[in-house]
Automatic annotation (TrEMBL):
The gene is ubiG. Keywords: Methyltransferase, Transferase, Ubiquinone. One of its GO terms (molecular function) is 2-polyprenyl-6-hydroxyphenol methylase activity. The keyword Methyltransferase applies. GO terms for biological process: methylation. This is Ubiquinone biosynthesis O-methyltransferase. It holds the Pfam family Methyltransf_12. Residues 63-161 form the Methyltransferase type domain. InterPro entries: Methyltransf_12 (IPR013217), SAM-dependent_MTases_sf (IPR029063). Its EC number is 2.1.1.222.
Length: 231
C-alpha cells in the first residue's frame, strides 16, 4: 500500500547534512518495506554522499552499477544534478524499492532501473558518469577486473568513473565493515586489494584525478575518481 500522497519530501541540496539526508530518504522510501526504509534513512551517516555528489557531472547522464535500492540516483534526481539516470543490479527486489522512490520523487521520467545478470548486460551508453559504489567487495576476486572493465567501457570521453568501496587498510575500520556486511548479508567479504582499481583503470585509459580516504563513524571508505581522456 502506498503512503499518503501528501507525504512531503524534504528539500535537499549537495550541501545536505547526514541528518537532512536521513529525513529525505525516510520520506522518499516511504512506499518500501520498513527494514529497507530504515536502512536507507541511516545510510547517510555511513556513506559519504556529500563527497560523491561533487564528482557527478551536472546535467549529465549517469549509470549506477550495482545501484541496489537506487539511493544515489534518487538523491541526484532530487538535487536536479542530472538529466538522466540508469541503475542496474543483479538483485531484483531492491529495484522495486528504487522504482517506488522514483515515483514518490516524481522522477520516473529521468530514472530507470534494470535487472541484469551481470554488468555486461548494463546499457552501453556511453555515460557522463558511471558510479560503482560498494560493489566490488561483493564480487568474487577473480571476476573483479572484468566487472570494473565493463563499467569502464561505459564512460564517455571526458566522463568520469566514480568508485567507492570499503577500505582494505588493516585495523578496526576494515573489521567494522566486515562485521556490518556479515550481519546484513551473511557474507564475510574480502576487500578489494589496495592499488587494484588504479591498475585496472590505467589498463582502460582512465586517469586517476582524485583519491581520498574518508573516515565515517567506525568505518573507512576509499574514494577514487577516474576520467577518460578526450580523444
Amino acid at each position: 500500500m502506498l503512503a499518503p500522497a501528501s507525504t512531503s519530501i524534504p528539500f535537499v541540496d549537495a550541501a545536505a547534512t547526514p541528518a537532512q539526508l536521513r529525513r529525505f530518504f525516510y520520506a522518499a522510501y516511504c512506499d518500501t518495506p520498513n527494514p529497507l526504509r530504515w536502512l536507507s534513512a541511516v545510510r547517510p551517516y555511513v556513506c559519504p554522499y556529500d563527497k560523491l555528489l561533487q564528482f557527478v557531472r551536472n546535467g549529465g547522464e549517469v549509470l549506477d552499477v550495482g545501484c541496489g535500492a537506487g539511493s544515489l540516483l534518487a538523491l541526484l534526481a532530487a538535487t536536479k544534478k542530472i538529466r538522466r539516470g540508469v541503475g542496474c543490479d543483479v538483485m531484483a527486489p531492491p529495484l522495486e524499492s528504487a522504482r517506488a522512490a522514483a515515483r514518490r520523487l516524481d522522477a520516473e521520467s529521468i530514472l530507470t532501473f534494470e535487472h541484469v545478470r551481470s554488468v555486461a548486460e548494463a546499457p552501453e551508453g556511453p555515460f557522463d558518469t558511471v558510479a560503482m559504489i560498494d560493489v566490488l567487495h561483493h564480487v568474487r576476486p577473480r571476476d573483479r577486473s572484468d566487472v570494473f572493465a565493463a563499467a569502464a567501457r561505459r564512460v564517455k570521453p571526458g566522463g568520469v568513473l566514480l568508485y567507492k568501496d570499503m577500505t582494505a587498510r588493516p585495523g578496526g575500520r576494515r573489521l567494522a565493515h566486515n562485521i556490518d556486511d556479515y550481519v546484513f548479508t551473511r557474507e564475510w567479504v574480502e576487500q578489494v586489494a589496495e592499488g587494484a582499481v588504479e591498475t585496472w583503470a590505467s589498463d582502460h585509459q582512465l586517469a586517476l584525478v582524485h583519491d581520498e580516504f574518508i573516515p565515517r563513524l567506525i568505518y573507512g571508505h576509499e574514494l577514487r575518481v577516474f576520467q577518460r581522456l578526450e580523444h
